[in-house]
Amino acid sequence: MSTFQAPKGTYDLIPPDSAKFLAVREAISAPLRDSGYGYIETPGFENVELFARGVGESTDIVTKEMYTLTTKGGDQLALRPEGTASVLRAALEANLHKAGNLPVKLWYSGSYYRYERPQKGRYRHFSQVGAEAIGTEDPVLDAELIILADQAYRSLGLRQFRILLNSLGDKECRPVYREALQTFLRDLDLDEETRRRIEINPLRVLDDKRADVQKQLTDAPRLRDYLCDACKAYHEEVRALLTAAGVVYEDDEKLVRGLDYYTRTTFEFVHDGLGSQSAVGGGGRYDGLSEMIGGPALPSVGWALGVDRTVLALEAEGVELDLPVTTSVYAVPLGDEARRALFAVVTGLRRAGVAADFAFGGRGLKGAMKSANRSGARYTLVAGERDLAEGVVQLKDMESGEQTAVALADVVAELTTRLG
Ligand code: ATP
Ligand code: MG
């Protein structure tokens, strides 16, 4: 151990487990790439004001969880706590929405930072894969994104996840509901902080996890009863499209995002094997966000799925991923001359596209064969002085145990053929 440890609330991804993270990122992004989403990468930090406006001044993310810093030049920056605001900022900056090509469909993958109380499934550094479809109001787009996330989880072998779905209304009907809710909430017995929340972000109060708060909310006005006809029709269309695609979801009218620019469709993916950190991903429409950060009206929808929690969900369900074996051939040289000869073979194999590794450091046969076994390689190549004198190497099929002498000059071709 060194003098240092990973900072509180963080952990390192190390082999072999790190392969699972790569596989999860790949599985989540593959359906997006196949559906017209282009890859976008933005900086790990942004102007703090982007998040204050783009995530919301009254959210926990902005008030409590952001890592902020002042640069030597005096800029106020924040490590990104989420992806949507940055992606929209970048799309606007590059004028992607003006190419006459709406919606702009983008996907991303990366590290996010939140100063949270660390616990299982809740870290200060975590990773997400996300997708945004910018600039089009079309229920098919909302359905597409939910279907693609469902497809991604299923392709990983996950089964015990549920999709929660709700509509938050729009700028016509939400304000009416908001006021009705505020009137109701102001009469309840609530602490100071929650009272403040009633004024800034009343829908969030519905999301309060405390039992004594929930008890008082039984008779709260329901958003469902306030949805305007356009929102109702839109939501019914999304539901019908999901049903037609065979995607099972649950209507959850408690599912809220309190900010004004979150509109209509909202959803969350929860996994029942994860205890209290059960949300593996979430998203929805954010028709008002572009204007909040100084852009034109661009109705958009997106989601972000947590990679860390998805890996935990796989473990909770006992899913073993079918991870690709990374090494196909493992070379074990016995002696200096063999070392040079076999390293040349390994280089040749690699150039031919065969994954090959090597017993470094002049190790004995026994230890080197152990490493060969651990590597999962299908074939080993062993050569000593006598083999080289005969111009051959010993090729061993680790599955059948069969061993054959192959001419040194032919071994790359032989292995490329055998491995297809
Ligand atoms: P929660 O309610 O659990 O705090 P959230 O609403 O803050 O989640 P989002 O901002 O919607 O989460 O982020 C999308 C996904 O990113 C979450 O569903 C989760 O899988 C993951 N995520 C969010 N915060 C963390 C974290 N601190 N550690 C690990 N994963 C996280
Ligand atoms: Mg959170």
Automatic annotation (TrEMBL):
User: One Pfam family for this entry, by name?
Assistant: HGTP_anticodon
What is this protein identified as? Answer: Histidine--tRNA ligase
The Aminoacyl-transfer RNA synthetases class-II family profile domain covers 24-324
**Classification via NCBIfam families:** hisS
This protein's record includes keyword Kinase: no
Q: What is its EC number?
A: 6.1.1.21
Organism, as annotated: Streptomyces rhizosphaericola
Q: Which Gene3D superfamilies match?
A: Anticodon-binding domain, Bira Bifunctional Protein, Domain 2
Q: Which family does it belong to?
A: Belongs to the class-II aminoacyl-tRNA synthetase family.
Q: Which UniProt keywords apply?
A: Aminoacyl-tRNA synthetase, ATP-binding, Cytoplasm, Ligase, Nucleotide-binding, Protein biosynthesis
Q: Where in the cell is it found?
A: Cytoplasm
> Its catalytic activity?
tRNA(His) + L-histidine + ATP = L-histidyl-tRNA(His) + AMP + diphosphate + H(+)
- Top-level enzyme category: ligase
Partners and quaternary state?
Answer: Homodimer.
SUPFAM superfamilies per the UniProt record, alphabetical: Class II aaRS ABD-related (SSF52954), Class II aaRS and biotin synthetases (SSF55681)
Quote the gene name from the UniProt entry. hisS
Q: Name one GO molecular function term.
A: histidine-tRNA ligase activity
Instruction: Please name the PANTHER family in this protein's record.
Output: HISTIDINE--TRNA LIGASE, MITOCHONDRIAL-RELATED, HISTIDYL-TRNA SYNTHETASE
